[in-house]
Amino acid sequence: MARTIAVSGSASGIGETLAGQLRDQGDTVIGIDLRDADVCADLSVPEGRASAVAETLDRAGGRLDGVVACAGVSDFTIMPVKVNFFGVVGLLDGLRPALAAAEAPRAAVVGSISGTHPVDDDVVRHCLELDEPAAIAAATKVEESGYGGQLYPSSKSALAQWMRRVSVTPEWAGAGIPLNAIAPGVVLTPMSAPLFEDEGMVEVMKEAVPMPLNGFAGPEVIAEALRWLVSPANTHMTGQVIYVDGGAEAVLRGPSDF
């Protein structure tokens, strides 16, 4: 049965690959991105999220079978907090009623192995309080202090915790909507491409994200996992962070965390 699925970040990387896989299996995809998408919107700001939600709902006719939030950024500025956390949460919250109207709705987000790395506690706390001005203020302090590298992990840690918290609520599980996350390791996408131009950075990535099973992943690997999460076959998995990372999480955290 053909389904209608909204995919953010559809213009490149994991989102583009997933959108292609879904269309190949006969689904209708509503792509959301800054440009080159069905719905062009800036998810880093509240008005952009509202615009994305409104246009997506209009295109979907008020009912969505699935939503996958792939859009994200990985720089050392406040942008990961604005896009990776508030952009995702705003989009999912806005589209949730359309999911609830579907027969077998599913939702998924893209987390990261970096969510297990050191984070800024204030940024994460304000994100989980859904206090965007406070979170941005805290992130700005981190950026200005020279520790901007903590902001991407902070955004992904907060996203995973938000997902686990809301996934079992009446609004999500109670409405029959599984909500899960795929947490990749290092993925070969346009976002990560500049890192591979520096041999020293490649070695840093191998140390920070050791992937003993088959090394760095292509975007199709992550897309396939997301595709299953939002398929009708997933009837009982919710609130899970699934590490598709070549074993990095097991190496970094050890066997006692499971």
TrEMBL record:
Pfam families: adh_short_C2 (PF13561). Keywords: Oxidoreductase. InterPro entries: NAD(P)-bd_dom_sf, SDR_fam. PANTHER family: DEHYDROGENASES, SHORT CHAIN, ESTRADIOL 17-BETA-DEHYDROGENASE 8-RELATED. Belongs to the short-chain dehydrogenases/reductases (SDR) family. This is SDR family oxidoreductase. It comes from Actinomadura monticuli.
